[in-house]
Amino acid sequence: MAISVSSDINAVMDRYAKQTAANSAAAGLEKKLKGDLSNATDEELMDVCKSFEAYLLEHVLKDVKEAIVPKKDENPYLNMFGDNLYQEYSKMIAERGDLGIAQKLFDSMKRNTPVVKNDSTESTVK
After folding, report:
1. Can you point out the beta strands (E) in the chain?
2. What is the pTM (predicted TM-score) of this model?
3. Would you tell me which of 52, 70, 90, 105 could form a disulfide with 57, CB atoms 3.0–4.6 Å apart?
């Protein structure tokens, strides 16, 4: 009985690299979302919403692929470049606005964000 240690180590290292990249992307998105968006322009707010939609779609696409494609039938090239492929697909779908998740999130954030009054723009006429 031969044990394939090198393939097991490669699989673990590959999984670790993917998880590290996912954690990094999640941390970047979380930083954007936790930032002060009360003074953000509509364009900046929509950009954050599209980033969230793309991140969500990327994970959905990866999970669907794992559910459909058996491990033994996996293409090694797709395995190598698959993360980038799904990331780009997700960005394209979010930019086109086909699903509308970003737009709904944007509308909700605009509706629930209190308007900040700037003292310098208030009228002082008596």
Report:
1. none
2. 0.60
3. 90
Q: Which long-range contacts (CB under 8 A, 24 or more apart) does 108-111 make?
A: 109/37, 109/45, 109/49, 110/42, 110/45
- Among residues 67, 54, 56, 62, which one has the least CA distance to residue 15? 62
Structure tokens at 89: 């697909």
Instruction: Return d(Cα 33, Cα 83) in angstroms, integer.
Output: 23
Residue-wise pLDDT for 55-71, tens only, equals 999 999 988 888 887 77
Distance CA(113)–CA(100), nearest Å, equals 20
Residue indicated by tokens 């992307």 = 25
Radius of gyration of the chain (CA): 21
98: left (phi over 0), alpha (psi -120 to 50) or beta: alpha
Does 31 or 60 have the greater pLDDT score? 60
The predicted model gives 1-29 an average pLDDT of 59
User: d(Cα 74, Cα 67) in Å, to the nearest integer?
Assistant: 12
